[in-house]
Amino acid sequence: MDRWQGKIAVVTGASSGIGAATAKALANAGMVVIGLARRIERVEALKADLEGSAKDRLHAAKCDVSKEEEILQTFRWIEEQFGGVDVLVNNAATFIKTKLVDTDNSEKLREIMNTNVMGLVFCTREAFQSMKKRSVDGHIVHINSIAGHSTALPNMNMYCASKYAVTALTETMRQEFKQEGTKIKITSISPGAVNTEMISQALRDSGAPLLEPEDIAGAVLYAVGTPPRVQVHELTIKPVGEGR
Q1: At residue 69, what are phi and psi to the nearest 5 degrees?
Q2: CA-closest candidate to residue 29, choices 10, 48, 57, 61
Q3: DSSP secondary-structure letter at 60?
Q4: In the 8-state DSSP scheme, what is residue 211?
């Protein structure tokens, strides 16, 4: 992580779970981290878990990534205050239990796609333009899911479709980054079940093996910390004992 010391990392959905763990890990590793969240007070509270100068390297920005205008305003603010983006971790996602064929669920379906897909696309677009304009060989990380590789998951419906889109978008973006003549990296990290707010209490009580958010944050550090010649394109992480 030496080449990233003092560089700017943006983490979406940084208020809890994988996003919170990743924001802390990057700040501890020497990066200046802007945590995007709707609940910015929870991002500010993460500073209590940091020591020394890492506390001063973590900043909160209010942003709902399901809304394009908020994304645009936030990235303009980041450019004005910090100069631009060097690393982006697209973590923000939502899971709403609804069947595709349920009645009166249009808003639920749109919220899943706007957050998990379009929010990711718009954040990546803005970060890419910042990196390209400044000739930065940056890194984009998508927090994907094993749901982006298998639909054999009960009651996940539109969530699976949204994560499949992330899988496709990762390769599409890699090709576009190359066509644009940049050396910007992109990585998709696909965890199995992680012990976050998205996991139901019933699943926790079942004794099913779970990953911890820090496990995924460690994978982000690994991918971002690889030498410039190395691109970790897809990384799948499952807890020991998972049946699928």
Answers
A1: -65, -35
A2: 57
A3: E
A4: B
pLDDT per residue as tens digits for the range 202-243: 667 677 889 999 999 999 999 999 999 999 999 999 999 876
Determine contact, residues 112/159, Cβ cutoff 8 Å: yes
Mean per-residue pLDDT, 76-100: 96
List C-alpha distances in Å: 232 to 25, 98, 182. Answer: 19, 33, 16
Cβ proximity of 31 and 8 under 8 Å: yes
- Strand order across the 234-237 sheet: 58-62, 32-37, 8-12, 87-90, 139-143, 185-191, 234-237
Q: Is the pTM of this model over 0.85?
A: yes
Residue predicted with more confidence, 207 or 97: 97
| Whether 102 contacts 109, CB under 8 Å | no
Catalytic residues: 159
3-state secondary structure 152-209: CCCCCHHHHHHHHHHHHHHHHHHHHHHHCCCCCEEEEEEECCECCCCCCHHHHHCCCC
Residues forming beta bridges with residue 240, ordered by sequence position? none
Euclidean distance between CA atoms 210 and 194, whole angstroms: 5
